[in-house]
Specification:
The chain is of the alpha+beta class. The protein is built from 7 helices and 4 strands. A hairpin with a 2-residue loop joins strand 1 and strand 2. The radius of gyration is 19 Å and the shape is globular. The mean pLDDT is 93. Bound molecules: zinc ion. The site of zinc ion has 6 residues, from helix 4. Zinc ion binds next to helix 4.
Length: 162
């Protein structure tokens, strides 16, 4: 098999996963479950988790396609650790989804539309990036408040495991 064949095979496989993610997104939109976003988690070439945006149907602002797909994969594999999995998403994961992907130990994400294209149809990913870049208090006011009980919680936990 030549290098170009390997690349071609990879593209064909990627296309298969993207197609499944697109189909999940389309069905979700048709059923008024949420926005036009879909994702699949793949392990050893097999789809182990599926998700589409379910923000509307679940009244859950965290039910983005990637999070739904990660939860599905974790349930199916009976683990919280998705090491060696790859996630395919129809759009660039937002900061929450990027964090979820990193928390799950997934090391590779492929996406199609980017954050600018997502913003152009009215979704607010830009707002979150703006918060990180400019720390705008009108977007979110996050303040460190010392509390001895909260701090002791960490110390007690540390003492139980070390
Ligand atoms: Zn997201």
């Amino acid at each position: 098999m030549m290098v170009s064949d390997i690349v071609l095979e990879r593209v064909i496989f990627m296309d298969k996963y993207f197609e499944e993610a697109v189909n999940l997104a389309k069905v979700g939109v048709e059923n008024n479950e949420g926005g036009p976003f879909g994702a699949v988690v793949v392990k050893n070439g097999e789809v182990v988790g599926r998700g589409n945006n379910k923000v509307l149907i679940n009244n859950d602002p965290t039910a983005h396609a990637e999070v739904v797909a990660i939860r599905d994969a974790c349930r199916n594999l009976n683990t919280y650790d998705l090491t060696d999995c790859i996630i395919y998403s129809t759009s660039e994961p937002c900061p929450m989804c990027l964090s979820s992907i990193i928390w799950s130990n997934i090391k590779t994400v492929y996406f199609s539309s980017d954050r600018k294209e997502v913003s152009s149809i009215g979704f607010r990913d830009d707002l979150i990036y703006k918060y990180f870049e400019e720390n705008k208090k009108d977007i979110l006011n996050a303040t460190k408040c010392e509390n001895i009980k909260c701090n002791n919680l960490l110390k007690e936990y540390k003492n139980t495991i070390y």
